[in-house]
Structures are given as structure tokens and as C-alpha cells.
Amino acid sequence: MAIMDRKEKVFVVKNISHLKENLMFLSKSKENVILLDSNNKKNDYEFIFSYGKISELKSSDNSLEKLDNYINQVNDWIFGFISYDLKDEIEDFNSKNLKYFEVPNLSFFQPSTIWIFDGVILRALYFDEKELLEDWSEINKIHIRSDENKNNLNVELKGRLSKEEYIKKIKNIKNRIKIGDTYELNFCFDFFNDNTKINPENTFKKLNKLTESPMSVYYKDKHFHILSSSPERFIKRNKKTIISQPIKGTKKRGKTFKEDLFLINSLKNSIKEKSENHMIVDLVRNDLSRIAKKGSVKVTELSKINTYKNIHQMVSTIEAQIENEVFFSKILKSTFPMGSMTGAPKIKTMKIIDELEETSRGIYSGAIGYIDPNKNFDFNVVIRTIIYDDKLSKISVNVGSGITFKSDPEDEYEECLTKIDALKKSLS
User: Fold this and answer.
1) Of the options 3.60.150.10, 3.40.50.720, 3.60.120.10, 3.90.1170.50, the CATH number for the domain spanning 10-426
2) What pLDDT, in 10s, does the model give residues 103-135?
3) What tens digit of pLDDT does each residue of 347-364 get?
4) Catalytic residue among 46, 184, 232, 319
5) Residue 325 phi, psi (nearest 5)
6) What is the CA radius of gyration of the chain?
7) Is 223:391 a contact under the CB 8 Å cutoff?
8) What are the boundaries of each domain within the chain?
9) Catalytic residue among 30, 87, 248, 251
10) 0.90 surpassed by pTM
């Protein structure tokens, strides 16, 4: 595989919101697309929009070795996803759960064109200048009519589990905690529709507007779409610094300032939520210590309450220092799947998850992001996400929560409904 050198061009943009709208419209004519949108939150970029396919890697066996080789071969920006089912390769599991979508354990592509807006300037990274300028001309000519932004028909989602079945599962988990099989377990289930059509670009725009989450993603691979409003960062590398930001603890937004303040304080002071958050922080610290320089793992923020447009979340930040030569595969082997979506102890808990959950998680609980030519990277946790296959007319929304001995099954069910509320609204 030949290594290619990208060129760079800077563009002046007067209206960034209008630009993002037009880029999303442009994506309809592209087969491979990814938008990473921080929604003006603190990040290295405001958004990255990439499309076109120079090369790609899809794998479900010996995947990490293949990915390391691919990273070194292209020596370029690559974008893609890591499925939760990669755990079967990392830990030598053999999950037999139903797969609602057949997806590889990982999928990455090297785009032809990348647009990066850092909050100040818009940069284009490209190979073919003629193609770039043609795209730029098309982007600026796009005029989106109001009827082109029309909403979907009301999409009915069927829960894999009834409320009664869910509560029975949670009681089972609490019994497993009582006898010492696990201390905390993130239990998930899905809502789905086997025969429906949506406009994925418009759905994402609506979802993104409803949530304004800092790790939002729109991903398209031909007829397959991922619409993610994730607020959670799995892992990020900036030179020698590794950052992970697990989320445990969720409250809906209040209807008034007073109610909002009450909900923030109830989350902040919740013994159950703090203990859940701290357990996962300890798990992430342990994961990072396997690749970090001795004594470099630090908790820089513990149980901080972050407020987003639709929810409040309890977020912690863990940082570590690593050596330059640490391969991406080694980092993933030590940290994936993320502790916030599994539990503690991690490996034993993942086995229990496979026993109790009805379906394979696939992309849900995985990660989406990029790796740059300097081997820096940034990946979200795939939560608050719609997965849609236009060819199969199938749609899926997964949801879950962390279960501890103090968990109330009714409360956990309501938390799940809170988490998918914006997803359902975006489909109406």
C-alpha cells in the first residue's frame, strides 16, 4: 500500500452552522462519510467531516494485529468503529448471542477528503485539488429547502424486553452481586423495528440539535448508518498523554432552573451513583496502569456533574503517561471494552453479561473515532445511538445502566427510558 502525502488548504467560512448543514446534505451523495461533532464543547476540534475512501480495513479475526499494520502502512488519518464484540478476540470469548446487525469487529477507512474546523479556521486535508475545489463549489451552491429537512414518520420501536422481564433480569443481577459473582454490571437491552424507513441525515441533525453532545458522530458506510449523540469519551491520546472519561450517573434535565438545581444536587449527593462512579474509576485506573509509566495514572476530576442539553451526567477524568512506542493494539487490549459499559471485575462480569443479555451488542458499547498520522487518537463510547440499515430497513436503539446491590429495578428502568428519550424524539 503506497503512502500518500496530503495537501492542506484553508478556507474562510462566515456561517459554520450553515456549513455543517451543507456538509450533511453533501454526505447523501457519498458512500463513506463520518462527522465527529463536539457541538462547541471543549475539544481539539469543533468538528471533523471526512468522506471518500482511499483504502479500508474490515476485520473479525486477528483484528488488532491487522489494525496495527494498517495504521503503519497508510501513515495517514483513518476513521472508523470498534465493535463491542472485539472483546471475543481480546479475551478469547465465544458469544453466541443473536446479532441484529452483521458488522465486523472493527472497520476503518482512509478518506480522500477531510474538513477540520477548530473553532477559528476551516482546514481541508486532501489529495486531489481539482476534486476538492469541485466539492467546495458544490457545498456553497447547496440550498436546503424546508421540506428537505422534514421529519421522519413516527417510527415505532419494540422493546426486546418488557418492563417485567427487565425487572426480573435486574433482580437476577442483584442476586449475582450478593453472592460475589460481580460488584457492578452494566446491563443493556435493545429497542428495534424490522421494517421501517428513515432519513438518516435528517434524523441525525434532529438528534444532534436535541442533545448537543460533545462526542456526537454521524457515520455512513453505503447503506449502513450510525447516528450517535454520545456524551462519553472512551479514550484519547495526545502525544504521551492518555485520557479516559467514564460516565456513571444520569439525571434528566428539569423543567425550571430550580428543578434543574435540585436534580443536579440529588445526583451529586447520591451515595449509590458516586459509589458506582468510583468503582468504574478504579477499574479504568487499573486498565490504564497496564500500559502507563509507573506512578503516572491520576484522577484529575472525580464525579464531576456535566450538564448537557437534555441530561445531567456524572463524569470522571483519568489521565496517564505512556511511551511513544506503545502500539494501538496494546492500548486496546488493556482498556477495551470500556469499564463504564462492562463492570467489575471486568472479565468475569462480561461473561455474566453474555449470559443475561438477549442480543450481541455489536457497535453499541463499542467506540467510534479517528487515528491521525502522529498516532494520536480520540474515540467515543457508542451510547445514545441509533443504528440503521437502509437496505434491510432495520433500526436498533440500545440502552443500559450500571447495576449495583443498591440499585432499584424500577429506577433503573426509568433511567433507561430517560437515556433514549431524545433518540425516540428524533425518530418522530
Assistant:
1) 3.60.120.10
2) 999 999 999 999 999 988 999 999 999 999 999
3) 999 999 999 999 999 999
4) 232
5) -80, 0
6) 21
7) yes
8) 10-426
9) 248
10) yes
